[in-house]
Every structure is written in structure tokens, then in C-alpha cells.
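Justification of resources, computational component.

The compute hours requested in this renewal are based largely on the per-chain cost of generating structure records like the one below. Each record pairs the submitted sequence with a full C-alpha cell output. That output is archived, and it is also reused by downstream analysis tasks.
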Amino acid sequence: MEQPGFVTGKTRRQWSSEPAFVFAMAAAAVGLGNLWRFPYMVGEHGGAAFILAYLMALFIICLPIMILEVAAGRLAQGNVVHTFRQVNRFGPWYGWFVVGLTTLITSYYLVITGWTLGYAVDAVRDEVRPFEDFSAGYASMWFFFAMIVLTSIFLLRGIAAIEKFSKLLMPVLLAVVVGLVVVASRMDGWDEARDFLLYADFSAWRNPDLWVMAFGQGFYTLAIGQGYLVTYGSYIPRKAHVPRACLVVGITETCIALLAGWMIFPFVFTYGLDPGQGSQLAFTTLPRVFEHMAWGWPVAMAFFCLFFLAAFSSSLAGLKVVVSAIAEEARTTNARAVLSVAALMLALGLPSALSFTPLAWTIGGMPVLDWVDQIVGTRVVLFSGVFGAALFCWFVRPMRLRHALGTSSRWWEWRIYVVGRWLPVIVLVWLAVTWLF
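The structure output for this chain reads:
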């Protein structure tokens, strides 16, 4: 089998250090994947049973694939399409598939980021509203438009701006979340939330959908199969230890996701809310929390402003994947690529924005945004992550990837190739058994 020759871009800019990469990658995925999506997935899929399945998926399967994607980006030092072009002659087709997938995910990410901006504005004015009131008008659409403008302006500044933004965001966000967990621990619903989050009903594991959603959340929260890791990895410094950096990101992601659950569910049970209400869970719960809390206004202002910044960083990461691919493959300027992607986001994201307005656009009775998130953000992401790992591990020899990992140990290399080569087989067998029985 002919070994692909990876071509590196010597003039490509880099993160200033390994910690800078960790901050940027953590900020890219922490935002909505953990503070918004994880709690609502836990609420819809059984609490502790889902959490345990998610943790198993994260550390057994997802982390090795994450390391693989970052190392592949570092090896090729290019956008997603360029990276997969080095793997196989069919690689560019898959690379463009990843770009398209990330485009779809980012289009509704921008809608939710617009929600966080709207809530931040309301918090500053001390007028935080329940989500049903927020979505009664066309605020979802107008804030979506605002997000397209803001992210476009930021992307014109390049990765240096993203790095500075991420270093400031992460420590402050973590401090506010921990503070809200302390407040939640004093609520009447704390005991019920503790039981929901710690005591698993293992009969739920017999439901295949729980496992699909758990693995999908693991892929989603670490941004696997979406081009983020390949793109951000292409800027990683030469001396960085890729497994160590990815492990720090993975642990940070997990801790913040779990803290988000402990932050939200005590309030959900205190106020008698439905934990399985879907994508608007955080936006329905937290306004009631701040309304009844001493010092509610400054806490609401701090939280929603930081929530917006975290979501904004996630949106920037997705857009960076698409902009890099278009700019480098079409050999156009960054500015033209940014404007093209902004127009694309406007067209693709508008149905999701309108699904939470008086027009209430739906697919199969489900808001367009929720439908796209559960189909594209879970099932298609799973396929993309598994297929991409298989491409790397079957067509790129371990010795080629070893240098990119930045470590002489073969422990991670062995894990990556076991998972990458045999996970597709396991998935196919599981699908066949599920279909037959």
C-alpha cells in the first residue's frame, strides 16, 4: 500500500504555546457542548445512566480519536480537505463532507449563541425573561443576524484574536459555574437532583438510543468528526505533547459538563420543571433561578455574559473550519472566505432561528433546530468521526503519525489504531444485531 506523503505548510501560523492550544480548544468545545447540550441530553435520557454511558464513551473511544485528529492536523498543517487529501485519493470527498457537516452544525449553533447574546443583553437591563417569552417574538431571528455580523468581524482578525479571547474566558467562566453550583447545593431540589445524577437505572442501557446519544454527545463535546480538531491541530506548536494537551482538554470538558448538570438540575427539581424539555432547558430554568435569588441581577449578568462568550468561542471554532477550507482550497483571501461563509450561514441557519418565533417552523412536529441537532449533531457526527478515524488508521502507517504525537511512548499510538481500525467493524456488527433483534 502506497504511503501518503504529508506535505507541511512551513509558513502556517501557530498557537504561541501548548497551553494556548489547550485554552483555545477547551473554549471552542466547552461553550454550548457542555453548558447547553449536555444538561438537556442528561435530562432527556435518564440522568445517571446516560452520564455513565457518556463517560465510558468519552474515555474509551472518543479521547483516542480526538488525539488522532489533532495529530493528523499537525502532520498535514492544512485545512480539513488538505489533510484528508494526504490520506487517500478519496480523502478530499470526505474532507468536504466534514466541512459541510460543520457548516450545518454551526448554522444552528449561531442561533443558540444568539439566544445567549439576547439573554446577556436582558440580564444587563435586569429584564431576564423565561424562554417562552423570549421566543414569543422574533428575537431569535434578530440575534441570529447579529451573531453572523459579530463572528465575521472577529474572524477577520485571525487566530491571535481567538487565542487572547480564550485565555481570558475559561478561568472566569469556570469560577462562575462553580459559584452557581454552590448556590444550587442550598436549594430544596438538591437531594432529588443528586439522586437523578448519581443513581443509575441500568435497565435504561438496554435502549440503543441512549448509547447512540451518549456516544454522539462524546463526539460532539470533543468536536470529533467536525474538522475543529484537525484545523486547530494544524496550528499546534512543534514541541507540544498532543496526548497530554488533549487529555487536559478532555478532563476540562468533562468537569465543566458535570458541573453544568449540578448547576441546573437542583433548580429544575426545586421549581418543578420537566428535566426532559429539550434544547431550551437552560434558558427556561436559569431565568427562574436568578429571579428568586438574592443578588440575582449581578449573578445573572455575569453568567449570561460568560455563557454568551463561551458559545461565541464555539461558533468561532466551527466557522474557522469552514473559512480555512474555502480560503485555502479556493485560493482566495480570508476576507472573501469570511463573507462567503457568512452568506451561507444566513441561508442555512434561518430555518432554525425561525423555529423559535411565532412562525414555529418544525420538521415532524419537532422544532427545526432540535431536529437538526439530534440528527446532524448526533448521528451524522458519529458517522463522520468513525469514518474519519478509519481513513487515518487504515491508510496512514503508525510511524507517520508517531512524530506528530510529540511523544516517544507508543501507548497512545496503540490505542488510537485499535480504536480507529476496529470501531467501524464493531459499529456495523452492533447495527446488524440491533436491526435483527
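The chain has one domain: 18-436. Residues 370 and 388 are 25 Å apart (CA to CA).
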